[in-house]
Design a protein that fits this description.
The chain has helices at 2-17, 31-36, 40-51, 57-71, 76-88, 92-100, 107-124. With 142 residues, it is mainly alpha-helical.
Amino acid sequence: MDYIKFLKQQILSELSNLPKLKTYDLGQFVKENSIKLTSPTLLALVSELVSDGDVTQTSLSISQTIQSHIIKSFTPSTLVHAVILHHWNGFKDFINFVHDYGYVVSYNKVLWFKTLSAKYIGEQNCTVRGLKEHSSPIFSWF
């Protein structure tokens, strides 16, 4: 039992030293940066349990979902999964249903993200994923 308390304290300490995600930054959604935004101990433990120690999409996602409950904030995984669900079906009730079980952010957070991403793309006047000249920028991410 002492080892569990030690792991808990180690994870909490690591989480307190991670930057808080309060703004939209595309760089957070790259695997390497998402790993940097995750408690190394939590990620190692989950990876050992689900993928024989390899950091996989699954182990990273589970780690970040657990982490989001500890820090009471979104993580790249909990945000991007909700955005993908919104893109696939767009149903507010469905996204909030999955949110209520703790797997993704709320529908309102999805709208916040999409608004900021559209603003960012517009301000940067950038072309993303082969976006055509007269296409709507917001669809470039989804």
